[in-house]
Amino acid sequence: MTDTTARPPLPRAPVPHTLEKTLAAQSAGFGADPTDPNDVAYDVRHPTYLGEWETSVPNKHWDIAQDDMDEPHLKRRLAITAKHPEVKELYGIDTNTKWVTLALVSTQVALAYAFGAGPWKDAHWGYMVAVAYLIGATITGVFGVLIHECSHNLAFKTPI
């Protein structure tokens, strides 16, 4: 079945932040106490600003949810390096990433062969479930970290 619903043009613009909204919130006293998590600020420069979300409703909005929140990595990096400057020595590209990835992929392929056509093909199904749960799931979690590192161009000396 094909969907004949008209789709809106992409991308949908994010919700604009207005100076009037900021001034109205400040005059009402919002955002005065940055240590109070219930005191929400409406100024994008304020540390407790939560952003304005455009929700993505299936079959109604055809693009992803968007927000105008600030990027948290920068604030966190500055706070950590101010407290622990020695962390900067850990910055940079780790050229071992490709070897870790190759080893993990090889392990998964070897386990698939071992249980499918190799020496463990007649093993009890419980062993396969245990290996998939303990080893396979751990490797899959590491793949998530590796993908994240690649998304920040930290796996190779030059971007791919």
TrEMBL record:
InterPro entries: Sphingolipid_d4-desaturase_N. GO terms for cellular component: membrane. One of its GO terms (biological process) is ceramide biosynthetic process. Keywords: Membrane, Transmembrane, Transmembrane helix. Residues 59-97 form the Sphingolipid delta4-desaturase N-terminal domain. PANTHER family: SPHINGOLIPID DELTA 4 DESATURASE/C-4 HYDROXYLASE PROTEIN DES2, SPHINGOLIPID DELTA(4)-DESATURASE DES1. This is Sphingolipid delta4-desaturase N-terminal domain-containing protein. It comes from Allomyces macrogynus (strain ATCC 38327).
